[in-house]
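Hi Y.,

Following your request, here is the sequence exactly as I used it, all 302 residues.
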Amino acid sequence: MLPIWYSQLYTNGLDPEARFPRERYRLVWESLAPERELGAIQFHQPELLDPEELALVHDIEYRDAFLSGELSEEKKRRIGLRPWTEIMVERTLRLTEGTVMATRWVCEKGGFAANLGGGTHHAYRDFGSGYCIFNDLAVAARVAQRDYGIGQVLILDLDVHQGDGTAALFEDDPSVETVSFHCGKNFPFRKMTSDLDVVLEENVGDEVFLERLSEFLEIRKHRPLPGLILFQAGVDTLETDRLGHLSMTPEGIRKRNDLVYSFAEEIGVPLVITMGGGYGEPIETSVASHADVFRQAAEKMA
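Below is the corresponding structure, written out as C-alpha cells. Let me know if you'd prefer a different format.
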C-alpha cells in the first residue's frame, strides 16, 4: 500500500485564472480511484505545516511576509501563481506539509510514500520562483536529519527544469546531495550548481535520458548510501509538454520511474515521491504520466 498525501486545496487554492494548470492535481487524484478502491493506495489529508519548520531553510523575513500577506508585488510576480487567492497561505502550508508527512512516514516505517503535489524546487532561501513559494524538498530533508538522525539525503530531481533553488540551498552542505537531470536550454536561464547536473540537449528522447540515468544509478550504488531519497518526479520531460523540450514518451517516463524505484528497493533506502511539473497540451497527457508515477510506486509496495 502506497500512502499519498493530498488536499483538494492543491487545486482549489489557486485562482481559476492562474496560468498554472491547477486542475492536474484533481485529475490525477481521480485517475487513481481504482487503486484507492483496491487498497493499493491510501490517501491522507496533509495537516498545516508549523511555520517554524520553514525557518530550517528559508529566510524568516521572507516567510513572515508571505504568511502575513505582505509579500511584495515583485516577489509575487516572480513566483507566478497570480491572481493571488485568500487561501494561498493555507494551500502552501498543506502542500509543504504533505511532503514532510510523507518523509516522516518513510523515516519511521521504510518503503515509499508520496505527496500528490510538491517538488517545489525553484524556491530559494529568501524568494520564490517558477510557481514555487517554499522548497518542500529542502524542508523535508532538514526534518529528516533533525528528527530521525538521517545523515545523507539524496535529492534526485528528474523534472525537465533544473532544481536551482534546491541546489542553491545546499551548495555548501555535503550532507544533502543534489542531483538534477534537466534540459539545458530551458528555465531557469541562470542555472545554479548542483552536486551533479546532467544537462541534456533538446529533444534527446527516451534513449539518451534513460541511458544517462541508468549510468548514474549504477555508479551511485557503489558509493556510501544515503539514508533517504527525495524524488522530484516531474513529467514535463514529455514530448507533449509546452514547457519541456526533451521529447520523452509515456513509456520512457514509466521506464524512468522503474529505474528509480528499483534502485531504491535494491539498496534498501526509503523514498519519498513528489509530483513536480507537468504542463502537457492537452493536460490529460501529463495527468496520465503523473498517475503512472504513483501507480508504479504502489505496485512496488504490493
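The beta strands are 2-5, 41-44, 112-115, 153-157, 176-183, 196-200, 228-232, 271-274.

Thanks again,
Q.
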